[in-house]
Amino acid sequence: MSALRVHHLNCAVIQRLSLRGRHLVCHVLLVETPASGLVLVDTGLGTADYRDIASRLGEEFAYGYARPKIDPALAAVAQIEAAGFARTDVRHIVMTHLDLDHVGGLSDFPAAKVHVHAREHAAAMKRDGFRARRRYRPAMWAHGPDFRLYSEEGEPWFGFEAVRGLEGLPPEMLLVPLFGHTLGHSGVAIESDRGWLLQAGDAFFDPREVHGPKRSCAPGVALFQTIVTTDRRLRFYNQDRLRALTAERPELRVFASHDPSGLPADYGIGASALHARAP
Prior knowledge:
The protein is of the alpha/beta class. The protein has a single domain (5-263), classed as 4-Layer Sandwich (Metallo-beta-lactamase, Chain A). Helices cover 25% and strands 23% of the residues. The chain has helices at 47-51, 53-57, 59-65, 76-82, 100-103, 118-126, 130-135, 219-228, 232-248, and strands at residues 5-19, 22-32, 38-41, 90-94, 113-117, 146-150, 173-177, 186-192, 195-199, 253-255. The strands form 2 sheets. It has a 6-stranded mixed β-sheet. Strands 7-8-9-10 form a 4-stranded mixed β-sheet, with no helix packed on it. The longest helix is centred in the C-terminal third of the chain and has 17 residues, at 232-248.
């Protein structure tokens, strides 16, 4: 059994978009590892975002289609410190992609190594085109993160291409390319002490897109997803693959970044849940 313990943080509440009557969220995972300290999967919105949301995220996001709740206590660093840890205990951050609502908290952990697919990093740095200039915000990495880039694939993960051997991280954590939402978008697979998880990022938004026999998505969320998608064909292709995976391997927990029902409450962070301070 894996020694990795996974806890769930919600690091944003997106008030203008909803699924089944609940606001969208920004799922972040906090992973306890035996030798690599604490690891975050994505960061959601960070301290600087909540302090100056329009400047950091743009007025369209801040006051238009998203209108996130302004609550600094939602920042990952605030939740981690409330649980008795220091921000320096977070040594690594693994990114599904570099969209503004996933990377805002990077600056709260300036010493952490940031692991991301090389295609995604290249797209974010280039910011080529109207959509890219709005989703990729250079202020998010102005502090100069220690990016570690990956493109080489190794042994497949349940039939999916997989990038293994993330530098300094345990072998139970790997990147699973799920291109489409962005050019280098990836899921993050984790073999935890409760079995395999796949944080599928924004490969889908509505769980009915991959859980069940037929793709379905709430209309407002479907429109938003269409607007922000870089490659629609690849997005649908990977959703079809994920649907086949969840049908064949129901024991795998596959969830998306913004689905409010993505993880059960017993994955929540708390002083009693975290059993050991990072070494």
